[in-house]
Design a protein that fits this description.
Blueprint lengths: L4 E2 L11 E9 L2 E6 L3 E4 L7 E2 L14 E8 L2 E7 L1 E5 L1 E3 L7 E2 L9 E2 L1 E5 L7 E6 L3 E5 L11 E5 L8 E6 L5 E5 L3 E4 L6 E3 L15
Antiparallel strand pairs: 1-2, 2-3, 3-4, 4-5, 6-7, 7-9, 8-11, 9-10, 12-13, 13-14, 14-15, 16-17, 17-18, 18-19
C-alpha cells in the first residue's frame, strides 16, 4: 500500500480519500491506520472493516503509528500512537474495545512512534518516542502489565524538534529520526549519539511565503 489518498475502489471498506499512514501484518490479518481511524482485514482478504472509531472506547485523534506486541487472552495486543497530546490506545480483542494508556512515568501515556526491540535482549520490549524529545520503554503496552512505563532519555531539542521515526538496527541499537537530525540510542549504556549535522527545517506552504 502506498501512502496517499485512497478510494473505495482501491481497498474495499476504506473510506474514500482516506490517507493510509501504515500497514502491519498480525498473523494472518492485516491492520491499517489512517489519519482518523484503524481498519482490519481478517485472513488477509481484500475486505477492510473499520475497528477504530467503530470500537467501544475509541478516543478521537490522529493516529501516527501502530504496533503489535504481546498477547492477552489469546489475542494480539495492538496499540495505536495518537501523537503527543492524546494518550495511545490499545486493544486486546481485535478492535472491539479500546483503552487509553494511563502510564504514569512523566508523559509515558503518549506516543508518536513505536519500535519493537528484540535484538540482543533476553526480554523483548517496546521503545517509543513522544514529541518533542522524550524516549520511553515498556515491556507491556497495557495498563495492568506495566502501569508506569520507563523514562529512558531525551533526544534532540525539546523546543523545536519533532520525531519522524524510530527503528532498531541489526546490533540492537535504536536509530531515531527527527526533522533536524538522526540519532542513535544504546539501550544498554543509555548513550545518545547524533549521527548527522543539525539540519535547518523550514516549513513550506502553498502561499509563497
Amino acid at each position: 500500500v502506498i501512502p496517499g489518498p485512497l478510494t473505495v475502489a482501491d481497498l474495499t471498506g476504506i473510506a474514500a480519500d482516506e490517507k493510509v499512514i501504515k500497514r502491519i501484518e498480525v498473523g494472518a490479518d492485516n491492520w491499517i491506520i489512517t489519519t482518523t481511524t484503524v481498519y482490519r482485514s481478517v485472513g488477509s482478504t481484500a475486505n477492510w472493516t473499520q475497528v477504530g472509531a467503530n470500537g467501544t472506547g475509541w478516543t478521537v485523534g490522529s493516529p501516527t503509528d501502530i504496533v503489535c506486541f504481546g498477547v492477552s487472552g489469546g489475542n494480539p495486543i495492538i496499540a495505536v500512537a495518537m501523537g503527543s497530546a492524546v494518550a495511545f490506545q490499545f486493544t486486546v480483542d481485535n478492535g472491539t474495545n479500546w483503552t487509553a494508556s494511563t502510564k504514569t512515568a512523566n508523559s509515558a501515556k503518549f506516543a508518536n512512534y513505536f519500535c519493537v526491540a528484540t535484538v540482543g535482549t533476553a526480554q523483548p520490549k517496546v521503545w517509543y518516542v513522544r514529541n518533542q524529545n522524550e524516549l520511553y520503554v515498556t515491556f507491556d503496552l497495557t495498563n495492568t502489565g506495566d502501569p508506569t512505563g520507563i523514562t529512558s532519555a531525551t533526544i534532540g531539542d525539546n523546543l523545536n524538534d519533532d520525531f519522524t521515526s524510530i527503528i532498531e538496527d541489526k546490533n540492537g541499537v535504536l536509530l531515531i529520526g527527527t526533522i533536524h537530525a538522526l540519532y542513535t540510542y544504546d539501550g544498554e549504556s543509555g548513550k545518545v549519539t547524533r549521527l548527522t549535522p543539525v539540519y535547518q527545517h523550514k516549513a513550506t506552504s502553498d502561499t509563497g511565503a
